[in-house]
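#struct-pred

JT: dropping the chains for the assembly here, can someone run the whole complex?
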Amino acid sequence: MSTQPLCISRKQVLNLLLTSALLAACSAPGQPTEPAEPAATQAPATAAVATEAPPPLATATSVPPTATAEPISLRVATITDETTLQPYTYVSGYPGWNMLSLVYDTLFILDTNSQPKPWVATGDQVSADGLVHTLTLRDDVRWHDGQPLTSADVKFAYEFYQANNHGRWTLPVRDIVSIEAPDDTTVIITLPAPDPSFPTRLLADVPIIPRHVWEGVTDPKTFENALGSGPFLLAEYEPEQFYRFTANPDYFAGKPGVAELLMPIIKDPTTVFAALKSGEIHATTRELAPELVAEFKADPTRRVLSGPGYATTLLQFNNERAPWDQAEVRQAVALAIDTRMLVDTVLLGLGTPGNPGWLHPAQPFHDPAIAATYDVERAKTLLDELGYTDTDGDGVREAAGQPMAPVLLVQANNPGRIRAAELIAAAMQEIGIAVTVSAEEGTSLTAKVWPDFDVAKGRDFDWTMFGWSAPVQIDPLRMATLVDSDVRYGTVNIGGYRSAEADALTAQLRVTTDPEAQIELVRKLEATIARDLPFVMLWYADLNYAFDPAVYDGWVFQMGQGVFNKLSFLPGVTP
Amino acid sequence: MRPGRLTTPNVAGLVLLAALALLALAAEWVAPYDPAERTGAPFEKPGPAHWLGTNDIGQDILSEVIFGARISLQIGVLAAALSVALGTTVGLLAGFFRGALGVVLMRLVDMVLVIPFAPLMILLAAYLGQSVWNLIVVIGLVTWARPARVIRAQVLTLTGQEFVLAARALGAGPLRIIATHIFPGIASLAMAQFVLAASSAILVEAGLSFLGLGDPTQKSWGTILFYAQARNAFLSGAWVWWVLPPGLMITASVLAFALVGHSPHPSAART
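RK: done, full complex below.
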């Protein structure tokens, strides 16, 4: 979830410290914590083609009904303090990046299908060899102080991120060979190799900062200035209390649908939803817990917007530790897990059972032929055939003389995952595998599973509950990072999975820009993952958001990512 | 608490405690279901099949509450035993050896007493990791100072008594004096301290587990409350059958211990 996971867990401890009376205190363990999201997002293949003249932005000439009424002051509770909210100080991937995107712009933007579309840039012409991207900028984009946003700002921003390391922005711009700005509205970016993920990973993700403000800044982490070009201006920030944004009436894509956006920071979920019920707030960046969805849907004065979520929950094996290093053993484990039951029990049915090949079934790249099988008897037969039987009659099978008794690590602050771990342990008992569930605090779990967030540093666990945030799933080409055995590419291959077949496919994917060929490769990779099962995909939780439609009804659901995005505040605009 | 002279509150406390202990011991027979088994749909309301409804994954809440007595009482008793054993040892040594050792030990006691109790406990629980045994050790390590101080005071009184001076004059060694003359004099006090420590240990266990710092895979009353809070029982109205019963059980056990430790002589039991 965050770019600085260590800070988050410290903060949680701090939170607890601040609660004076033990029993009166309400901590916030309900929120699913995604492990640190590896630096960048990559692009779906369709974006790789040179974009032709973009469809013109539907400027808000058709006046929305709300515009005639009183100026709207919208109160949207958020769950984290994002400090001074500039590109070097915001904290979390969600909702921090989303809040940042209200103030800053990117050259491309993810549309409601989470596909990159032109935004500040009107198009991206790619050279035949895939190396040179020529971007044309709009000429009517202005910074909040009235200065025009030009190609010089883009060049400056990307070079600034190259020079000043940041967990999310530096990686996508690091290998750029050159950035040129021949005139005010043209940017020419030369890459060292064709990169099909360029539009999502860089153009739609990395914010542009104003050169006239940032020039000369040497320590960006302490620089306090959130002047951007986005639909909102950051008017006020009270640490640990609230953010107040005011609309940018001259925004190039149209006037924002609300005049003022007040974002109180409320960390405790119960408090947030109680405030939403009572009308103290009108919406929240926090997803609605499954058990509350029916209740908010039943309330005629509230509305719930739902859709598939791309955040994943999975059972990760240590693929280097026997007997879990054998694909057949992992297959047996997967066969004994009823993912439908997990979704029905833990998410009350509000989710999609895992596709063993990783991709969300709603993903256009997904091969519908790949699906999970639940068959306990076959799981037993599989283990019997391997010779892993219960030789000493204690109900637990032995593999090479050792009982099959893995420790399943689970994040102690994530009740849903603990429940799932308990259910999996019960399912494993059926097939003679004795699972011990061990709940651990986030930092100590990460130290065993993904030390220093660097897969090159090895691993020390049997099984663990894990999950990746939406950006890893949005770009199907990013599947390579999950399975490539080369640590340079398999940056989130935390199980140490190693397969020559998968490596060959990912190598091809890296250089393939033809969308059809990409789909074919992704599907082959899906089939490989579904067969070898370096991890068992458990579920993709649906995203549900409740809000008060009487105050503001412009919320737009962005595929896999939710409603808190720039487009939700720009009525009638389709990128 | 003075043996042989039980007050009415003492008797009431003992009866309540006995009832809770019986419930914990006989949980298998009393509870309608295995609390680990999913016997209903998630979030079922109370009904004939599940008197207190079901929790977020369809386990019977009544059975959870009954089995919870086991973990909660076990933690309470063991943590209190550790706390009082430590406290008694330190109190005895500090009271008897009033030289350098006594000074050092009492400064240590002062130090532990002034450390803010709740935050230290939360930190220790967070960094030692989540297990029942860690919880017991944490509670024991943080709560021993009070008994130590009370017991030292009593030891000081006793060592000035004539029978101790006489024993010393006759050449008895410190170990013998402690074992035969001092310890019997503080045993009932240690017992009273144990009862007090047990009730606060149960409360602390519930608090830490509720905050998610216990072992979330163990069914203690605090853990039941943790899931109730995490799954929004306070918003959905489920708190009536999901939060109140474990809450009342915590209250009952704390009350039971407090009543057992109740004494008409304030000096004996108060800290």
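JT: nice. The mean pLDDT of chain B is 88. Chain B has one domain: 11-19+59-262.
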